[in-house]
Amino acid sequence: MYTGFKQYQYTIQDTEDNVGQLRKLFYDEQLKIVKQTNQFLRILSKVPSVKGLELSECNEFLQAIHRENPQYSTLVVANGEGMINCCAIPLKKPINVADRSWFRRISKSREFVIDNFLISRSSKKASLPFAYPILSSDGKTLVAAVGAAFNLEYYRNVFESVPLPRDSVILVTDRTGNLLYKSLSHQASGNQDCLGEKLEQCRGFKLPDTRKGKLEVRDADGKDRIYWFERLSVGQETNEICLLIGISKQALFSGVKQMLLINIAMLCVVAFSSFIIAWFFGGKFILNPVNRLLERTRLVQKGDLSIPESIGELPGELEILSRAFDDMVLDLYQKGKDRDEAYTIINNSPLVGFIWSNQSGWPIEFVTENIENVFGYSPDELRGNTIRQAGIVFPDDLERVQRETVRFSREKKRETFAHTPYRVLTKSGDIRWVDHRVYIKRDPTGSIRNYHGILLDITERRQAEEEIQNLRNYLSKIIDSMPSVLIGVDKEGRVTQWNRKARSVTKISRESAEGKPFEENFPGFSSDLERVKNAVKSAVNDHKLVKDLKVTWTEGEETRYQDITIFPLVDGNMGGAVIRIDDITEKVRMEEVLIQNEKILSVGGLAAGMAHEINNPLAGVLQNIDVLETRLTGMTIPANQSAAASVGTSMESIAEFMNLRGIPRIIHGIKDSGFRMASIVKNMLDFSRKENTSFSSHHPTELMDKILELASADYDLKKQYDFKSILIQKEYEPDLPMISCEGSKIQQVLLNILNNGAHAMFARGEKEEMPPPKFILRLSHKTGLGMLQIEVEDNGTGMDAKTRKKIFDPFFTTKPAGVGTGLGLSVSYFIIKENHGGTMDVVSEPGKGTNFIIRLPVEQKSRK
C-alpha cells in the first residue's frame, strides 16, 4: 500500500510538472507572439505600397505575405478614417472599421495595440487582433493602421509539444469565461462545438475566482477529470485569459491501481506470516515498548514538551528510535522557547506582521498578536476573515494601495516593495498613518502564493512632518510676501531660497534657480556682475554685512537701479547668506527730477535777476524817449520855441524836417519796443517768482496768452527757429471759469509742450507737400467733470505707440544727444498729476502730429 501511495504521489507530481511545463511554454509563446507581431507590423508599415495606400500593389503584397504567415487569420490596412484600403483576403464590399475597438484605441494612443480576443461569427474561430500605426511626418496625425489577427488554432503546436495522458483536454477562455480554444482530442470525442459560449454552459462547471488552482469535475463527456488552471495576462490586463488542462482520472491512475492490487496480494501473504511470529515475540520485545513510546508521542501531541523521562531499555532499532524521539522533543522545546521569546519581542514592538493571500480582498492568513494593541482588532477577527486586509485601509487610499500592489506584483523579479505611506482605520474608527513593507512569496513557477508584510504606525512622525511642512510653508509665504527680492545662498554661493519677487523679476522658476550659482540667475547684472559676486563672497566668507551696494539691472532696452544688501548666515555649519535686492529706480528718478527742479529754480532765479537788471536801464530808455519826443514835437512849449529861435530856426521848420526824415515814426517804434520789452520782463518775473505752492485764481485765456508771449520771446533769443513763423489757431470757449492753480507751474508745463511741439515741427524739414508749422490751442470747460481742458495740438512728425508709452518716463527723449534731458515732460506730468490732481494724456500717430490734453480741476480741494 505504501508503494502504491508513493506511486500515486509520483504520478500526480509528474503530471503537475508536465502541466507546469506546458503552462510556461504557453505563456512564453504568448510573449513571443506579441513581440514578433509588433516587429512584423512595424516592418509592414514601412513598405511603400502599404504606407502609400496603393490599392492593387498593397493587396497583392498582403496576399503574398499572408501565404507565408498562415498563423494570422487576416492582414489589413485601414486609412485614417477607418476604411479598409487593402486586405490579404479579398473583400466582397467596402468595410469601415472606425467603430472597432482596435481602431478606436490606435486612433487615441497612436501606438502598437493589442485588442481583446474575438470570435468570428462565420468561422467560429478565435483570434487576437493587433494593430500598428502609420503616422504623418510630424507624428501627430494617424494616416493609416496595419492590422493582423492571430489565429488561436496555432496554440496546437505548443500543446502537442508536451506529452499528456489520453483523453486529456486543453481549454482557453477569456477573462469573462467565454471559451476561445479547445484541444483537438476533445473535438474528436463528438461533443458539440461551443466556442464563444460560457465555460459553465459548455462544460458544466465554473472556475473559482483564484488566479490558479486545481479542480476535480465530472466533465461534459461524462468522464472524471482533474483540471489545473491559471489566469495569464496577454499584453494588458483586459486581455487576461485562463488556461485549463484537464487530465482524465482513469488514464492518470490506471497504472497505479494495477500496481496497488499486486502489492495488496503480496502484503496479505507477508502479513499472515508476520502475524504468527509477532504473536509469540511481539508482546514482550516490541508491543510493550512501542506502547510506551506511543504514550510519550500523545503527550507531545498535546503540547507537553517537558524534558522527557527515559522509556527504559528497548531492543535494537527501537532504542535508536527512542533516543531520536527524545532528541527531537528537546529540539522542539528549545525552538518553542526561542519562538516564544521572538513573539514576545514582536508583540511588544510597534511593528505588526501580516501574511495575506493573493486573492480578492486579501484574506489574512496570519497576523501578530500586537495588532490589538496597535489598531484595536483582535487577531481572531482578522485570521477568521471577518475583516480582510483591504477592509482596514482607509477608503480614499484603497485604490492607490491596490494599484501599487498590482504594479509591483507584475514585475517577475520583484521580491519586495514599499507602499507610499497610507491611512488605516482602527477598530475605534480612528485614522492612523502606516509605513508598509511587503515581501512577495512566489511558488516555483513564479506565481504569487501570498504576501508577507510589516506595518509600522507612523502617525506621530507624520504629524510632526506636517507641522514642519506647515511651518516651512508659513515661512515661505512670509518670504514670498516681501516686496523685495530675497535669495538664500549656501557657502559656495548656490541658491537655496528663491522668493516670489525673484521669480517675477528674473522670470526664472524656483526649481530652475535652486542649486545654481547666484550669478547665473541674474544675467541682467552683466556690467556689475563681478562687483556683486565679490560682495557675496565677502559676506559668506568674512561674515560681514554688505549694504548700500548700488547696481544697474538691464532688462531689454530698459535700465533699472537696484540696491543690494547681503546678510551673512553664521548659524552652526550651515553658513551662506541672505541677499535682499530692492528696486530703487523710482527713487533714483525722483531724485533726478528734484535735482532738475532745483536747476529750473536756479535758472528762474537767474532769469529774475536778469529781468531786474534789464528793467532799470529799460525804464531810463523809456523815460528819456518820452523826454526826447516832448522836446522834438512839443510845438507850443515855450522852452522848445526859445531854443529853436536861438539857433535861427523855428519849431515848424524842425517838425517839417522830422516828418520828412520819419523821426516821429522811429520814436514811436522805439517806445512800442520798449513797452513790449517791459511786458516780457514782467512775464519773466511772474514766471520765475516762487509762490511757495500757493494756489490762486487765474483766467485760462490770460495764462495761455502770457505763455505764448514768453515762448515767442524765448525762441527769438535762441535763434534756432522763429516761433513767430508758427501759425497759432485759438479755439477758446466763451465764458470760461477762473481756475485755482499755481500759475507759474502751469505756464512751465505749457511752455515745455510748446517748446517740444515747435522742435518737432521744425525737425521735419522744409517739404512742399507739408503744411506750415501750426499750433491749435483749445480751452474748454468740462462741466460734468468739473475740469478745465487745455489742448495743445501741433502738426509735427507725431510718434508711434512705443514712444507714446514712454513719453512721460524720466530721462526719455527723442531729441539728439545734448539737446534734451528727458525730464521736461516727466516733470510736467508730475506737476499736473501730483501738484494739481489733474490728468495729462497724449494722442498721436506717426505723421499726424501730436495733441497733449491737460485737465485741471476748476476748484482745488485741500491738498497736502
Question: Radius of gyration, rounded?
Answer: 54 Å
Proportion of strand residues: 15-25%
Low-confidence stretches: 186-192, 715-719
| Global mean pLDDT | 78
Class of secondary structure makeup: alpha+beta
Structure annotation, total helices: 25
Helix percentage: 40-55%
| Head-to-tail CA distance between termini | 118 Å
Give the beta-strand count: 29
Q: Which outline best applies?
A: elongated
Query: What is the makeup of the main sheet?
Result: 6 strands, antiparallel
Per-chain topology:
Elements: H1 2-46, H2 48-51, H3 55-68, E1 72-79, E2 84-87, H4 101-109, E3 113-114, E4 118-119, E5 126-135, E6 142-151, H5 156-159, E7 169-174, E8 179-182, H6 184-187, H7 199-203, E9 212-218, E10 224-234, E11 236-248, H8 249-301, H9 316-347, E12 351-357, E13 364-367, H10 371-375, H11 379-383, H12 389-392, H13 395-409, E14 416-418, E15 422-425, E16 431-442, E17 448-457, H14 459-481, E18 485-489, E19 495-498, H15 500-506, H16 510-513, H17 529-542, E20 546-555, E21 558-568, E22 577-583, H18 585-633, H19 638-646, H20 651-661, H21 663-688, E23 696-698, H22 700-718, E24 727-732, E25 739-741, H23 743-763, E26 774-782, E27 787-794, H24 801-806, H25 824-835, E28 839-844, E29 850-857
Parallel strand pairs: 24-26
Antiparallel strand pairs: 1-2, 1-6, 3-5, 4-5, 5-6, 7-8, 7-11, 9-10, 10-11, 12-13, 12-17, 14-16, 15-16, 16-17, 18-19, 18-22, 20-21, 21-22, 23-25, 26-27, 27-29, 28-29
Gist of the model:
This protein has 25 helices and 29 strands. The chain is elongated.
